[in-house]
Write a structure and sequence with these properties.
The complex is a heterodimer. Chain A is an alpha/beta fold. Helices cover 42% and strands 11% of the residues of chain A. The model of chain B has no long low-confidence stretch (mean pLDDT 92). The chains are: A alpha/beta, B mainly alpha.
């Protein structure tokens, strides 16, 4: 515990210089790098990676937007420029396996980069955490901070419907020994937070309600004190929703990695 | 009399065949307005989907009550139409119940009786389901049957089909009831079928007191209503949302097999980007081959979409499951995935009609974008795939929305201001937000600092 650099954040450049290669590259994503709230998720995940002793690396300043919002907003040129730039970097380092805490980055790198020459094994951090649990590297803690607490999980569209990842996040939550309560619309029927498809970067079109309010109301209806998310955009939208409903004292929005890190007292 | 009926029957069959053939050809041509896309791979998975989802109606059962009622009509439709074989032979040869006679000859009347009773049982189920559907659609006020696109023809169409089916089933029952009474009176030309329970119980009482000549007329009229009804229905279906009865199968077969989150790559853009980045470009010949005709980026009109998109539109049953799941629609935005599909179909019909008449076709000064679908609808989509997930016949409205956004962004520079700002942020700062790129790794410094502070506090 005396070690000042308990949590290391090795970059790919350093590793390559030492002739080393990581087990997995942690793709941080723009939200994980710049958004104050989501930086906490990045840090939590770094702590977990350090704790379980995974040999990982990040790209640091060499990382760049995957191009997801550009593609979904219709700007295919910009998307492909970004994608090819990233693929050059990733292939240059001979990256084989990537983990990311952003379902949008996850979907793009996993499903859309192969057409442009980027072929990697890509995992969302929920799947990665589930694997750590399966391998016994993270275990259920009795008497933890969340024991018996009501938690509801909000499915991210880009994780759920887009990639059929429904079980991993729930399995992760199970290790908290909390009470998992589902919203009325969950899994394949889950309601979007309202931010996908580049909506994050514009005002909503005219309507009678904001989507995140609709979803937040549903989450609040469960009576859960914690809304668990697994996506930076969902995190923003649900936090805004809770704030809008003036419930931020009673209801907190956390990412899966944060919950695990807290439970592990990291 | 018999020969007159025979001639009439053959004339009806020929007319139906001709009209149907023309109509199918038109729809085929309209679908072929779309661009090429390869959906011929992975045959085994495609057949599996067709069996499970189209034939087996797997996705219907997300709404169990509707699914059961629909299953009743669907099974009824499939099974009762087997009787159509006998109808057809009877009409052609001017005989009555050819198959019954044949089975009588080989001592299998019992089989005929059982089969007809199954048909009648299903006919009753179909009638009940249709009545329930009519009540549901018109009285119970179910939200997904409403919406701006569900007025006029679509609304009428939905009811007409149900009424049509009820009439057809009533014709069967009437025919069988009068037939049975004629059999009991030993009228020549009416071979014994055995008791057909449902028509005997429910329909016979109405006809019991008629004279034999009157009964023969009733039986003949019911027969003709049924057979003309089937033919008319077959043609009607091609103009109706009811076309899904046929197209649900190919539509499911050719559905997207990739992860739903994947957006189709634009290979024409890849080529250009590679050249810009000084990377080797494959398929040099095909670039030259396309010279002179630069395809439009994204979709402005139906011919910019793929043929699968247009087939999707023709397969749509307008059930509204997509729209009822759409987060944009649920919160009062203009977007309705069902409307997108109906617009594509209507535009394809309009273009096809114009071409057939020697008109301007696609060059009629109109387009899918603008005249049918507005920017506001396209910009409301969150690409959440709820509509795709909801569709029982594997329609993909999202694919159309995204292609039209591509046209807006790349050909018209018509994206919303804030999206254009996001684009330029990505170009200059490599992130959708305007942060200096040098700050990208600052979180690691922050993490180190937090630890130092934590250590000092210990």
């Amino acid at each position: 515990m005396e070690d000042k650099n308990l949590y290391k954040v090795p970059t790919m450049a350093e590793m390559a210089q030492n002739g080393e290669s990581p087990e997995v590259l942690f793709w941080v994503g723009c939200a994980g790098s710049f958004d104050d709230r989501y930086k906490e998720v990045t840090k939590a995940f770094i702590k977990i990676l350090n704790k379980v002793g995974i040999k990982f690396a990040v790209l640091g300043q060499e990382e760049s937007c995957t191009g997801d919002p550009a593609r979904r907003a219709g700007n295919e040129f910009l998307f492909q420029m970004q994608a090819m730039g990233n693929i050059q970097v990733l292939n240059g380092y001979n990256i084989k396996k990537i983990v990311t805490a952003c379902p949008h980055c996850f979907n793009t790198i996993k499903n859309e980069y192969p057409d442009l020459g980027g072929n990697y094994e890509v995992m969302h951090h929920s799947e990665f955490l589930q694997q750590l649990i399966n391998d016994g590297r993270i275990t259920l803690k009795e008497g933890g901070a969340f024991e018996g607490k009501k938690i509801t999980y909000h499915d991210s569209c880009y994780l759920g419907r887009a990639n059929d990842v429904y079980e991993a996040p729930r399995k992760v939550l199970e290790t908290l020994d909390a009470e998992l309560v589902e919203m009325k619309r969950c899994k394949t029927n889950g309601l979007c937070c309202g931010a996908g498809g580049a909506q994050m970067f514009k005002e909503p079109e005219k309507g009678n309600k904001d989507i995140n309010i609709e979803r937040t109301e549903e989450a609040l209806d469960t009576g859960a004190g914690i809304i668990a998310t697994a996506c930076p955009f969902c995190m923003t939208m649900m936090s805004d929703g809770v704030k809008n409903k003036e419930k931020e004292e009673q209801v907190k929005v956390f990412d899966l990695a944060e919950l695990i890190a807290k439970n592990e007292k990291l | 009399m018999a020969i007159f009926q025979q001639i009439l029957f053959i004339a009806v069959v020929a007319t139906t065949g001709y009209l149907l053939f023309k109509r199918i050809l038109r729809i085929r041509n309209n679908i072929k307005l779309g661009r090429k896309t390869d959906r011929f791979d992975n045959k085994s998975e495609r057949w599996k989907n067709t069996l499970l989802i189209a034939f087996g109606q797997k996705k219907m059962f997300k709404k169990p009550i509707a699914a059961l009622l629909h299953l009743g009509i669907y099974v009824g439709f499939l099974v009762i139409n087997i009787e159509g074989i006998e109808f057809f032979l009877d009409g052609l040869f001017g005989k009555h119940r050819v198959i019954a006679r044949f089975l009588q000859g080989i001592n299998m009347t019992g089989f005929y009786t059982v089969t007809l009773n199954i048909f009648e049982f299903l006919a009753v189920i179909v009638i009940l389901s249709c009545v329930f559907f009519l009540i549901r659609r018109n009285i119970l006020g179910i939200k997904r049957f409403d919406g701006i696109e569900m007025t006029h023809w679509p609304k009428l169409d939905a009811n007409l089909i149900l009424i049509f089916e009820i009439i057809l089933m009533f014709a069967i029952m009437t025919m069988n009831a009068s037939d049975q009474i004629l059999q009991s009176r030993n009228v020549a030309g009416y071979p014994q079928t055995g008791r057909m329970i449902f028509s005997d119980i429910f329909a016979s009482p109405f006809y019991q007191n008629l004279s034999t000549p009157a009964l023969i007329i009733v039986e003949r009229v019911a027969w003709w209503i049924h057979i003309i009804g089937i033919f008319a229905f077959a043609i009607y279906v091609t103009y109706s949302k009811h076309l899904h009865t046929a197209l649900a199968f190919p539509n499911t077969y050719f559905a997207n097999l990739n992860a739903q989150g994947k957006i189709q790559n634009m290979d024409e853009v890849t080529k250009e980007v590679k050249m810009m980045m000084g990377m080797p470009v494959e398929n040099e010949e095909s670039t030259n081959g396309n010279e002179g005709e630069i395809p439009r980026l994204g979709a402005k009109d139906v011919n910019d979409l793929s043929w699968v998109n247009i087939m999707n539109a023709y397969s749509c049953t307008e059930c509204g499951r997509c729209t009822s799941q759409c987060p944009a629609n649920l919160t009062g935005k203009k977007l309705s995935p069902r409307k997108i599909m109906m617009d594509v179909r209507n535009r394809a019909e309009e273009v096809g009609e114009s071409i057939a008449k020697g008109g301007k076709g696609l060059e009629d000064g109109k387009s899918l974008l603008g005249d049918y679908i507005t920017k506001e609808e396209l910009f409301a989509c969150t690409s959440c795939n709820a509509c795709v997930e909801a569709c029982p016949v594997m329609i993909d409205p999202l694919s159309i929305i995204l292609q039209m956004r591509r046209y807006l962004s790349m050909e018209e520079s018509g994206a919303p201001q804030s999206w254009n700002a996001m684009f330029s942020n990505i170009e200059t700062s490599f992130a959708p937000w305007k942060f200096p790129p040098s700050d990208r790794f600052k979180w690691a410094d922050e993490l180190a600092k937090e630890q130092e502070n934590a250590d000092e506090n210990k």
